[in-house]
């Protein structure tokens, strides 16, 4: 619900006890989003016939799940989503963004010099903004997926994203500590005024 009102008790009771206790310390949209993200993760995990324990967050904000699964969560005011897979030699990241309002000023913070040059070649302001948003969101998914491998904050300048028109993107990683090499599968989908990106590393 698009409301900062407290999450109803009957919904809180669908969480694990530790999650419910933590949710009760949150206020407004933070509580709604936390609860929505945990419900989404639990729903996704059940498709793998996996029942998740309480999902609290580590010091970088990532959900701490069991060793046997890989989990990524993203949420905005009115929607939360999660992807869950059995853990292999890869990790997943997901991000959700809304189209508006446009914030073209973030380009200089989240795009590399090469990406900004390509972005400036786009004539229409609205298309330029969507290009910025797409690259930004894929980078957010990259950082969630790569965090379990590198265990550190990865800056926006450490990835160059080249979106295609087919819902995929090519990614170059330039990690400052030379971790890797990593293989990156990046995808995106438009969802009625929202953008969802996902990455497998």
What does this structure look like?
This protein has helices at residues 9-12, 17-23, 28-46, 107-110, 113-120, 125-150; strands spanning 56-57, 63-64, 69-76, 79-86, 92-98, 159-163, 168-173, 185-190, 194-200. With 201 residues, the chain is an alpha+beta fold. The mean pLDDT is 94.
Short structural summary:
With 201 residues, this protein is an alpha+beta fold.
Defining traits:
single chain; 201 residues; alpha+beta; 5-stranded antiparallel β-sheet; two-stranded antiparallel sheet; 9 strands; globular
Order of helices and strands: HHHEEEEEHHHEEEE
Spatial order of the strands in the main sheet?
5-9-8-7-6
- Which structural class do the helices and strands define? alpha+beta
Largest sheet, strands/sense/barrel? 5 strands, antiparallel
Name the overall outline: globular
Distance between the termini: 33 Å
Detail the poorly predicted runs. Answer: none
Provide a count of the helices.
Answer: 6
Percent helix, as a range, is 25-40%
Q: Would you tell me the overall average pLDDT? A: 94
Strand content: 25-35%
How many beta-strand segments?
Answer: 9
Gyration radius from CA atoms, angstroms: 18 Å
């Amino acid at each position: 619900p698009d409301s900062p009102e407290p999450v109803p008790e009957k919904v809180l009771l669908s969480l694990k006890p530790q999650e419910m206790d933590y949710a009760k310390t949150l206020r407004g949209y933070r509580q709604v989003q936390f609860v929505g993200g945990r419900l989404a993760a639990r729903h996704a995990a059940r498709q793998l016939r996996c029942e998740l324990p309480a999902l609290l967050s580590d010091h970088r904000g990532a959900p701490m799940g069991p060793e046997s699964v890989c989990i990524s969560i993203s949420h905005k005011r009115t929607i939360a989503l999660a992807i869950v897979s059995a853990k292999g030699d890869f990790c997943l990241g997901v991000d959700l963004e809304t189209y508006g309002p446009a914030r073209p000023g973030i380009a200089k913070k989240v795009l590399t010099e090469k990406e900004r040059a390509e972005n400036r070649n786009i004539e229409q302001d609205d298309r330029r903004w969507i290009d910025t948003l797409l690259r930004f969101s894929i980078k957010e998914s990259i950082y969630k997926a790569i965090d379990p491998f590198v265990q550190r904050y990865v800056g926006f300048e450490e990835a160059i994203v080249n979106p295609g028109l087919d819902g995929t993107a090519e990614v170059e990683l330039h990690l400052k500590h030379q971790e890797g090499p990593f293989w990156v599968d990046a995808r995106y989908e438009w969802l009625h005024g929202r953008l969802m990106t996902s990455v497998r590393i």
